[in-house]
Every structure is written in structure tokens, then in C-alpha cells.
Amino acid sequence: MKHIDCKNYTYLDCEKGMCALTKMMLPIDGKGSDACPKFVMAPKCGCCTHFKDPDSHGLGTCEGFEKPNWAYASCGAGSCEYFEMRDER
């Protein structure tokens, strides 16, 4: 996992963001982008129970609405009324 996948990550621009807990500047990728021990998975389509059959680019199908439609795994789902975090146990 990467910092960018954390609920506490705030985007600042196309290269970096900030941790809402530590206030540290964090790169989106590369050195220093790995998740820390305080990582909490952000609600994204890719970790929803309704997200199915992603391809190699992370494009899959959302089956949470009346009519299935495509969705990217990395798409934020914090305000989706049908979002259900997948149980990874």
C-alpha cells in the first residue's frame, strides 16, 4: 500500500500530498511513498464489494447501482451511497 491509498492523505498537487495526522509532505510515488503504520484504507471503488472484474489498468464494473457501469479502482468513493468496504480477512 502507498500513502496515496490512505484515508488520511490529502492531495496538494500532482506530485505530493500531506498526511492529515503528521502534517508531513509525502510524494505520490517513488521513494517515501510507502504507507506508514497508521495507514487506514481510503474508500475507493477498488476496495468496494460492488467493484468487479478489473482489467490490468484498474478499469472494472460497478454493480452497486441499478444499472452496472464502468469504474476505475482508484476512484474515490467517500460520498458513494452504495460503497461497502470489502472484507479482506
Count of DSSP H/I helices: 0
What spatial form do the alpha-carbon principal axes imply?
elongated
How big a fraction of the residues is strand? 15-25%
Please name the CATH architecture of the largest domain.
Single Sheet
Return residue spans where pLDDT drops below 50 for at least 5 consecutive residues.
none
User: For the CA atoms, what is the radius of gyration?
Assistant: 14 Å
CATH topology of the largest domain: Ubiquitin Ligase Nedd4, Chain: W
Number of strands: 6
User: How helix-rich are the residues, as a percent range?
Assistant: under 10%
Question: What does the model show?
Answer:
There is one protein chain. By secondary structure, the protein is an all-beta fold. The protein has two domains: 40 residues, Ubiquitin Ligase Nedd4, Chain: W, CATH 2.20.70.100; 47 residues, Ubiquitin Ligase Nedd4, Chain: W (Single Sheet). Helix content is 0%, strand content 22%. It is built from no helices and six strands. The strands form two sheets. The protein has a three-stranded antiparallel beta sheet with strand order 1-2-3, with no helix packed on it. Strands 4-5-6 form a three-stranded antiparallel beta sheet, with no helix packed on it. It is elongated and about 40 Å long. The two termini are 16 Å apart. The model has no long low-confidence stretch (mean pLDDT 94).
